[in-house]
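REQUEST FORM: STRUCTURE PREDICTION
Request ID: SP-0412
Submitted by: Lab K.M.
Chain count: 1
Length (residues): 542
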Amino acid sequence: MNPNENGMNEERTTVIGKMMDQTDGYIRLAYPSAAGVREIRVPEASVDRIERITHGRVAVLIKDSNEFTTGIHFAGGAAPYHVTEEHIRIVCALENGEPLDIDDVDDETPQMVISSNNEQPVVILTGEDGEAPVAGENDVWGQGLFSGNRRANACDWRFNPVRRPAFVFTSDLDEASGVAPTAAAVNDKDGKPAAFHIFNPDFASQRRPMGAYLGTFSDRYHMDPYTKAFDPILQKSLENGWKADVTAYNEGKRARLDCDVSQAGQDKLVTANRMRGLGDMFEGSVTAPMVDSLKNLYRYGFTIHNSLDGSSSFRIQATAMRAKCSNMSILDAHSKTILTLRHTKGVMQEYDWEDLAQKVSDTIMAAQQELVNVELLKNVAVSNDLLERIMTLSERNGIITKPKVHRDDAGEITKLSSGHMWRLMGHGWTRPHESWVGVTDPEEQGTLFHVYNILTGALTHKPVYNDVENRIVMQGNTIGFQTLDKKLLSTHRMLTQIGRDAIQGFYEDNGKVDADSLADLKDYTSSLDMLEDIPMFSEVLH
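STATUS: Completed
RESULT:
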């Protein structure tokens, strides 16, 4: 406790770490805590003093304010970890208002390394030598994941959730007497708590003293901080040379660990052999060099999803981003190794997270297999009529929406309004060189691969549609992380299935699909009448 200028006591805490960013009246700090490396968002009104020290770090004296209570935010495992003589010297200097002699600080052995970039704060584990990687090197999907205004919804993931028994009011406030309402616990028949509230204390304020409300659950719901499941994966990523990031969003209700393994050189020959061993139409078409070439075309790996609001189980999915245009893809890697765990006692509580970290290679191979399927879409021709049928199918699958149709008294169409994604599909088809499409090779234009990148690019980046001639400018709505994943997966399933059906017909007529016959595949598909049962989009509108 320290007296302020009015003689009142206020709590103050010193934090030593890295300043990740400073925006909108807040600073974001990453620091070693009793529970591990932690990030926290602090309002500038709570910053009493800040000093730059060695190795790009800062020492910040934080005080209570209307928006921030140190006793809540730094309670328990969130308390700053100060153990060295040098750290203690810094803390004493700041809290006593003394000058800080930086030259006296000996801090040559860092306990953590924080790499910062303009897209996302990233916590990076270090090896035993404590060497720091190049700043920004560990960015995973960056431009893809945070494009389309999604970055504003991200928050710190290294918080310790708080679990409290639920209470209900048994009486109302007596306004006349000022007597407060009474409350009782929500118990089961044995008198034990039957319901619990979960909070993120990082968002504690006067209005929300417990922090952000995450959800209410029965006593069977098992709650662990994200660190328990994610830290072993981060450690395995460090050992294997994978790039890994964790992002929490919706005030901590959900979080995702994204891992890029494309440059690690793992399992490419195994993937090629497995695909050739499928015994179907792709036998003989997939080689180790083909799989190896994926690393130059895509950043790919896996995403682990977790939640603390009951909205999702713990699950793993294959993820990729096309290097040329930062378009994201959620891959339909159907495999028994894609893990799903429910948040119940006896499941989450007893799972071996170290073992999970050892099993992700099958997910990686599944991602590689799916990307080979995407690359084969370059050999499937798409006519203007087929494009319209795909647009209809996209609308049925919730990927795009129809524009609003305005008619005159005679029923004739006079105007089409809204329909941002529909307009982008037409724009990307006629302008494949747009940065969010990135199909610059003439051989790839007018193919299913071209359509794939129109849709994934429009979903990932939400580019502005600008029709100068007709004076139409349209931004489109921002879509969240969950919606993005859902629509990207629908896109992948829809287009790869169309491609597979076309290639299957070629296989039945030619007996094989190999590297030598792929050149004939485009000519073959250009003559097919695919999706003939699906009406063209213009027919649907009219």
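NOTES: The CA atoms of residues 52 and 58 lie 4 Å apart.
Reviewed by: T.R.
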